[in-house]
Write a structure and sequence with these properties.
It is built from 17 helices and 19 strands. It is 39% helix and 18% strand. Helix 6 (205-213) packs parallel to helix 7 (231-242) and helix 15 packs parallel to helix 16. The strands form four sheets. A six-stranded mixed β-sheet has the order 8-10-9-11-12-13. Strands 14, 15, 16, 17, 18 and 19 form a six-stranded parallel β-sheet that branches. It has a five-stranded parallel β-sheet with strand order 2-1-5-6-7, sandwiched between helices. The chain is α/β, with parallel strands linked by helices. It folds into two domains: 3-299, Rossmann fold; 305-471, Succinyl-CoA synthetase domains (Rossmann fold), CATH 3.40.50.261.
Length: 472
């Protein structure tokens, strides 16, 4: 099969994320890295497919029969994961070809990112794979995750067992996104797929975009890139995929020094940052600025409907936050909504003076039936047809009983209003703020760590929604 035909062979890609059988080739010694950890994380995450540990020094590992080589396995193997010294990887790739394995993850490092010999070995590995119709993720990768089927073959000990299923796909040229490096066990919005494509000797961001476009569990795609191998293909695929799902990209190598260092990290060839920005604009890609945004901003797309317009409603406990939100929203084309006369009147009836563009609940906090007033205010504001999206500010108070009351209210509110809601929570107790934030997201209401991040999330959601309308 020629390489161009191989690239277009989409049927191979599901083997990486939906395998029914996996060969794990590497050290099976108990520790914090290697084949033993991969087998353990797969079992702990509930992967139900067949697992074949491969190492000639072992008879059994974690209750599973170990095999001296792939050749000794009689059954079909969908996916091979290789974690051995780079000198021996080519021989194992040849064995995979003999076994007609079509999907291989090469965790091993020391290839193009290290030296000339590594680059030679990487090129030879790709040549062997192409001739055999094998697709490769890596080398120099921490691997992949599919939260839906317990596929968490992490070669590093993550310290927890499960990754919450959700709608965010996370792809990158770094292991910083994999379970051993990020607290997915504490992430309340959930992810669908994770892929560190390492050196991208074969499979790259374009292949992942094509796969994720039709993945029913993925609602939004976020990527960290150090380079783009095929600029025109990336542009064409991104244009097509972004019509269906938002694509958020964080790109490094903006400076000459950053580009130089990225080359030593994954053997990447950098692309001019101005050209990349122009390509993002053409393709409808949302470019993000920080690693914090990389994990935080996608949840607005995963948990909330897209806003129908740019009219921003604000419910807050402090007028200062409302003014800051209006200023911040203007950067993204959001405008402060004018409450309809009917809604303004209803708010003023709840408490005198509430019926303004910024609904400040600060004054009613002094009354005894504060929580009842709060729920009435928020429901009234959300019922206003003049509002497309809502910036929701919550003061937790120092008391846990307040948190419980809030959560009862939001549980009753869940799914009842088709408006985009972004929440910022503040208060005197960090543990209570964190607890409420997590439980709010469990209910489907994304909470952001900063006021500015919440507004930016609403802003990019509006811009994406507006762009989709323009394409119809």
């Amino acid at each position: 099969m020629g390489y161009e035909a191989l690239k277009s062979e989409k049927s191979v890609l599901p083997l990486f994320f939906e395998p029914e059988s996996i060969a794990v080739i590497g050290s099976l010694k108990e520790g914090y890295f290697g084949g033993y950890v991969v087998v353990k994380t797969l079992l702990n995450a509930g992967f139900t497919g067949k697992i074949y540990p491969i190492n000639p020094s072992y008879q059994e590992i974690l209750g599973l029969k170990a095999y001296p080589s792939i050749r000794e396995i009689s059954g079909k193997i969908d996916l091979a994961i290789i974690m051995i010294n780079r000198r021996f990887v080519l021989n194992v790739i040849k064995e995979c070809a003999e076994k007609e394995i079509k999907a291989v993850i090469v965790v091993s490092d020391g290839f193009a990112e290290r030296d000339a010999e590594g680059a030679r070995l990487q090129n030879e590995m790709v040549k062997i794979a192409r001739e055999a119709g094998i697709r490769i993720i890596g080398p120099n990768t921490a691997g992949i995750v599919n939260s839906a089927n317990g596929l968490i073959p992490d070669p590093y000990e993550p310290g927890y067992e499960k990754v919450k299923p959700g709608g965010v796909a996370i792809c990158a040229q770094t292991g910083m996104i994999n379970p051993q490096a990020f607290p997915y066990a504490d992430l309340h919005y959930g992810v669908s797929k994770i892929c560190d494509y390492g050196n991208k000797c074969d499979l790259d961001e374009c292949d992942l975009l094509e796969y994720l476009e039709s993945d029913p569990t993925t609602k939004v795609i976020t990527m960290y890139l150090e380079s783009i191998r095929d600029g025109q293909r990336f542009l064409d695929i991104s244009k097509k995929v972004s019509r269906q799902k938002p694509i958020l990209i964080l790109k490094s190598g903006r400076t000459k020094e950053g580009a130089r260092v990225s080359a030593s990290h994954t053997g990447a060839l950098a692309v001019d940052d101005r050209i990349f920005s122009a390509a993002c604009q053409q393709a409808g890609i949302i470019r993000i600025e920080t690693f914090h945004e990389f994990f935080e901003l996608p949840k607005i797309f995963s948990l909330q409907p897209l806003p129908k317009g740019n009219r921003l409603g604000i419910v807050t406990f402090t007028g200062g936050a409302g003014v800051l939100a209006i200023d911040e929203g203007a950067k993204y084309g959001l405008t402060a909504a004018r409450l309809s006369p009917e809604i303004a009147g209803r708010l003023n009836a709840i408490f005198p003076g509430l019926g303004k563009a910024v609904v400040d609940i600060g004054p009613p906090m002094a009354v005894n039936n504060y929580m009842e007033i709060y729920s009435d205010v928020l429901k009234t504001v959300l019922a206003d047809d003049q509002i497309d999206c809502l910036f929701n500010v919550i003061w937790t108070s120092p008391f846990k009983e307040f948190v419980e009351e809030y959560l009862k209210f939001y549980e009753s509110l869940h799914g009842g209003y088709q408006k985009t809601i972004a929440t910022w929570i503040y208060g005197p107790s960090i543990p209570l703020v964190n607890e409420m934030s997590g439980r709010m997201e469990d209910l489907g209401f994304p909470v952001f760590s900063e006021l500015e991040a919440a507004i930016k999330a609403l802003g990019i959601a509006y811009q994406y929604s507006n762009r989709k309308k323009g394409e119809k």
